[in-house]
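Quick check before the chapter quiz. The format below is the same one you will see on the exam, so make sure you can read both the input and the output lines.
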Amino acid sequence: MKKFTILMGLFLATVITGSAFAQPVTFTPEQIKKIEDHIIGLNTQIEELTAENKSLKAEIAEANKNADAPSDNAEGVVDSLINSEDFNVVKEEPSNISCKQVGEIAENIMKIRQAGTPMSSAMDIADGNSVVIAMVQVAYEITRWSTDQNKLEAMQDFRIKNEQLCYKTGFEER
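Here is the expected output.
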């Protein structure tokens, strides 16, 4: 609000100062149409950004609602992930894991990282799988965030980076 007030003050000062020297301006119908189209385009962008913002807020709220456990119950997070379908692939050979599964595992590893789970507990999930061990090691080099939005972004970013690495290295083709 403060920025808006300052900008409006500057705008009004410019208008008042400029109006003393201003020449009458006329626009052609084509120019008016271009201005109207531009304003409509800006309104559309504002609506899209507003919808995206609402979507992100809903996603964060859903992630919070579906969180397995708060950080004071980090062991519960590990236990629930170990028993989930997402981690059944951990017991497979690394060559049998798809890049999509690598992404899912990475996202869940970052979830337990952001929940405050000790690294030793996260290593229990790896069950000797070298790919998962490497992901846990990298995940624990990343900052543990305090806000839910930053935690969600860390989980999504870690998943994306691991999937990209998987596809770039041709891991899925082996």
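If your answer matched, good. Residues 68-75, 86-91 have pLDDT under 50 and may be disordered.
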